[in-house]
Structures are given as structure tokens and as C-alpha cells.
Amino acid sequence: MPCLNLSTNVSLDGIDTSAILSEATKTVAKLIGKPEAYVMIVLKGSVPMSFGGTEQPTAYGELVSIGGLNPDVNKKLSAAIALILETKLSVPKSRFFLKFYDTKGSNFGWNGSTF
């Protein structure tokens, strides 16, 4: 159910993306309280992006979930995902935005239907 979309201007060539996907999956599942089997992570690199007028490493993310999000969880998720991006892709925490969407099951399609 939770889906984390991450876009960055950092090239993913030569990067162990499997480690990023695995760590992000575990983090999202743990903090939201959902099984890892339902967590999707999308990671896009080399996306033309600028932040603050520069093209230094930056990233943007959106996390959609059916429940499990609240101000405390969102703060923890923001810190945890920012840390992953900083350690794995050298994106400074100050150059990363993460937007949260808590949605109803009827607004989330899966397996040819909705939840």
C-alpha cells in the first residue's frame, strides 16, 4: 500500500540501488506499521532538477499510504529517508523535500481493483 516515489538529479550509474530500495522498504514498513510485502519504492535518477537555483545534488519524494501517517510518523520518515539519500547518494538533508499523502483505500488501485 505505501508507495514512496523518489526523484533525484544524482546519476545512479555505479550505485547499488538494491541497497537503497531495500533500506527504504524496511524503513517505510517499520515506521508506518505495514508489511514490507506491500511497500513499493520507485527511485529515479538523473532527473533534471534544480533547488535554490543550483543543480547541486537534490531530491524530491512523495509518499502515499492508506493510513499510518501522522505528524510524528511523517517527521521520522522524513529524517530516515533523508539519511538514506545523504549516505547513499550524497544528497544533503537540506536539499530534500518529502510530501506525504494519506489516502482512502478507494483511491488506491491494486490487483485490478481498489482497497
Chain-wise SSE layout:
Blueprint: E1 3-8, H1 17-32, E2 40-44, E3 59-65, H2 71-89, E4 96-102, E5 109-110, E6 113-114
Parallel strand pairs: 1-2, 3-4
Antiparallel strand pairs: 1-3, 5-6
Helix pairs in contact: 1-2
Please explain how this structure is put together.
With 115 residues, this protein is α/β, with parallel strands linked by helices. It has a single domain, classed as Macrophage Migration Inhibitory Factor (2-Layer Sandwich), CATH 3.30.429.10. The protein is 30% helix and 25% strand. It contains 2 helices and 6 strands, in the order βαββαβββ. The strands form 2 sheets. A 4-stranded mixed beta sheet has the order 2-1-3-4, with helices on one face. The protein has a two-stranded antiparallel ribbon with strand order 5-6. β5 and β6 form a beta hairpin. The longest helix is centred in the last third of the chain and has 19 residues. The protein is globular and about 40 Å long. The chain starts with a strand and ends with a strand. 26% of the residues are buried. The mean pLDDT is 96.
